Amino acid sequence: MKFLIALKDKIILILSGGMDSFTLLHHAINQNYQVECLTFDYGQRHIKEIECAISACNDNNLSNLQIKIANVESIFAESALTSNHIEMPHGSYQEESMQATIVPNRNMLFISHAIAYAISKNIKRVWYGAHAGDHFIYPDCRPEFLSAMNSVAQKCHTFPINIEAPFLNFSKAEILKLGLELGLDYSKTWTCYEGKDLACGKCGSCNERLEAFTLNNFIDPLQYSEKN
Fold it and tell me: For the segment 36-56, what is each residue's pLDDT rounded down to a tens digit?
C-alpha cells in the first residue's frame, strides 16, 4: 500500500548558492515544504554562486527565478563583494576584517523583492538563510532586523507575509552538521567571496566554511587554490 506524503505550506526561499541557503533549501524539501526559489544578481564578484543556485534547483526539479537588480552596483560600490577596486579581506571571520564585505541593506532589498513575488504567487512565507555567525557583522542578519521586517511584511498587503530565518540561531558548523546528516554534497555550493575559478581558501568566508568542516571532522569537497 502506498501512503501519500502530506505537503506543507508553499514558501519562497532566497537561494544564493552558498552553504547556508543550500542547506536551507534541502531542509525545506526534507520537511515537505513546497518551495519556489529566488536568486539575485546584484553585481557580486562571486557570481559563481548563482550557477550553484541554478544547479541546486535543477537537481531538485524546482523553479528558480533569477533577478538582476539593475544598476544596484553603484549603491554597493563601497563593498568588497561588489567592487574589484577594494581588496578582499583575508584571515578569520572577525568583525574588523569583515567590515569591508558589508553590502548595505542587501537583505532588505532581497526580502522586499521576495515579498512582492510571494504576493504575486499567493504564498505567505519567505525564508532566507541568516545564521548566528553573521549577527556580529551583518545588521540585516540579526534577530531585531528579522523582527522589524516581519512587522512590515504583516502589513504591506491585504494578507500577511511571514519572513522566516530557520537557521537564525544556528552556527555555521551546526548548519553543516544538519546538511551532512541529510547527505548533501557541498561541492555543489560556493562560499568564496573572490570571483575566481577556485575558492581562495584565505578570505573570511572561506575560513569560516573550512572551520565548520573541521568542527564536524569532515573534509570539504570543494577545491581551493590554497588554504590558511
Answer: 999 999 878 778 899 999 999
Domain count, the chain: 1
What is the C-alpha separation between 193 and 166, in angstroms, rounded? 24
Domain range holding 201? 10-215
The share of the chain scoring above pLDDT 90, in percent, equals 61
Whether the pLDDT of residue 3 is over 80: the answer is: no
- How many Å separate Cα 112 from the centre of its chain? 15
Structural domain includes residue 4: no
User: Does 5 fall in a domain?
Assistant: no
> Rounded distance, CA 172 to CA 228, Å?
18
The CATH number of whichever domain residue 140 belongs to comes to 3.40.50.620
pTM of this prediction? 0.84
Rounded-to-integer distance, Cα 212 and Cα 218, Å: 9
> Contact, 89 vs 80, CB < 8 A?
yes
- Whether 222 is in a domain gets the answer no
Q: Which amino acid is at 113?
A: H
Evaluate whether residue 221 is within a structural domain: no
Cα dihedral sign, 95-99-101-107: positive
Residue whose C-alpha cell reads 557580486 in the numeric block: 44
Q: Which grid coordinates are listed for 62?
A: 524546482
Instruction: Please give the DSSP secondary-structure letter assigned to residue 87.
Output: P
